[in-house]
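User: Run a structure prediction on this.
Assistant: Running it now.
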Amino acid sequence: MRTAYNCNQEKLQKCKHKAGCCIDSAKDTLFALSKDIWSCAELAYEEKQSHDILVRFFTETEKGWSVESHYKLDTAFRATWGPTGVNAGGDTLNIGFLCEYDALPGIGHACGHNLIAEVGAAAAVGMKGALEALVDPPVRVMVTVIGTPAEEEGGGKIDLIEAGGFEGLDLVFMAHPSQEDAAYLPDMAEDDVTVKYYGKASHAAAYPWEGINALDAAVLAYNNLSVLRQQLKPDWRLHGIIKHGGVKPNIIPAFSELVFYLRTPKRRDLPFLREKAEQCFRSAAMATGCRVELQYGPHEYHNILLNKTLTRLYEENGKALGIEFTTDEQVLNTPSGSTDFGNLSFVVPGIHPYFYIGTEALNHTEEYTAAAGSDKAQFFTLRTAKTLVMMALDVLFNPELLKQVKEDFRLSKLKEECEVRRENGSGSGPGQWGGAASASR
């Protein structure tokens, strides 16, 4: 006897199959989209060609989308389709897919953001195709694609959050290229700081005593931070460069500049690391007689909130498509990079899985740039897009899953807030460092 549940499951499986077929049918245009973005390789907030390529895709190549170019930011966009279907309450489930497309200086798309853009576009194509073939969607649904610039520097998603760019979304999905497949990896909270020392120029041989050496201050600061690492918690990170150290060996440098990234697994710990680093920077100025300026980046990146339900759904659907998820505990439990998606994960329930692209090369290398633009990456990229759509359809067809996703989101945020309050109430601060240990840029 066929039950309503069985009929619903049959519809769901047909929708998943249809979504995959739609993505496969568009594979040539999707690869062309990715390759065009890979070829122009634009830096953060400068992705004008990439923005235009994606806008043309949703206005000319794909039909039926309402597209807003220059959405809130000059190089952001939004494409929407729907809503379609009805339900008793009239509520609309708004499912968002995100595209990134900024590159790295000097080495292009060495983080594979062209593939992130392709995954977002492919998932949107698959979702739209599946819903168009569905006679009676179980709920009223809208598909939204948002192009989010400047992940590598600046934090375009944070700009969009502040501008209300994600309002109305119920879920957000994206995926990032890596060396392995993982439904969740613990990206770190991050803040960046530019440190400038101002001294006094003088002839380095004739009368060096008349000078105040700004390069000495930079070197002292660098060494101070190197010594500080011995006292850092094992999963805290700080790293940087001396960006400017002088103009000529026979001139005492009157100016020097450093850029450092500070990272902790949880956003609650960043203020403690920031205070310790500032002591290193300011003591170098005091020792050399220089004046120092500290300029923090426009945004602090947050860690990604884990959504257990979405993570489980991604793994279940990925395995159905043949994805072999990593079981390496070191990979799964060691914090690595940082992303502005972390900030968004505190605003809208979402997922940011990682996917293998057919290479063992490491991100941010020339070898990874080549892999991100290769034919070989296409199978893995489109398989990832299919997995995101299948997961979205699971939530669409099962209202209880959506409730679980929202409850996971609520509990994860509550846990973070409780940890912050506990840390603040424990007296643990920059000078004491007590309390429990802390558990893509």
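Confidence is low (pLDDT under 50) at residues 427-439.
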